[in-house]
Amino acid sequence: MPLNIRESADADIGAITAIYAHAVRHGSASFETEPPDEAEMASRRVAILARGMPYVVAEMPGAGVVGYAYVGPYRARPAYRFSVENSIYVAPDRQGAGIGRLLLPALIERTEAQGYRLMIAVIGDSANRASIRLHELCGFAPVGTLPAVGWKHGRWLDTVLMSRPLGPGPDEPPPDMQCSPDRAQ
To answer: pLDDT (tens digit, 9 = 90+) per residue, 110-140?
Structure first.
């Protein structure tokens, strides 16, 4: 299957919105209960890009955008600034075709190149074995499970937390700390 992983563009918002809407309506990966419209999805993308964070799409000839992935801040407080949370969504008719296995490594590579130190996966529903397996295959380790933390589709859902070190991981100080005055000589 020829597939192009590329930076997202404004013209991709329609496809991104449709993919996400299906996930919201029918899946448990997102804990949103009402799908956002194109204007909201465009606004969210702009916010990610304004931070300089990666937002990529998988494009298939003749089919257009069939998946997308991005990272956002893990938490807003300054000490978390070197950690990111990833999101990956694949069109329902393309799931199981290996698109996530191309999107996630591309996302990891771009994120690591920007100096981030930890990528966190917040996976909706412990029954979401495909997402858990994808993250395992890409070097993520389980961190924990928040049991019955969300209510959607008439049932309680868990959240599975997984993480993956980026770059040198926890063994080196963050980039903005390496040249502090007391280390200069």
So the answer is: 999 998 999 999 999 999 999 999 999 999 9
Using CA atoms, how far apart are residues 67 and 123, in angstroms rounded to an integer?
17
Tokens read off for 128: 């979401």
CA distances for 82 relative to 28, 34, 117, angstroms: 27, 31, 5
Cα separation, 106 vs 151, whole angstroms:
32
Q: What is the value of pTM for the model shown?
A: 0.91
Q: Over the stretch 84-100, which tens digit does the pLDDT of each residue have?
A: 999 999 999 999 999 99
Structure token pair of residue 52: 């300089």
First to last CA, the chain: 54
56 Cβ neighbours under 8 A, 6+ residues apart: 5, 6, 7, 8, 68, 69, 70, 103, 106, 107, 110
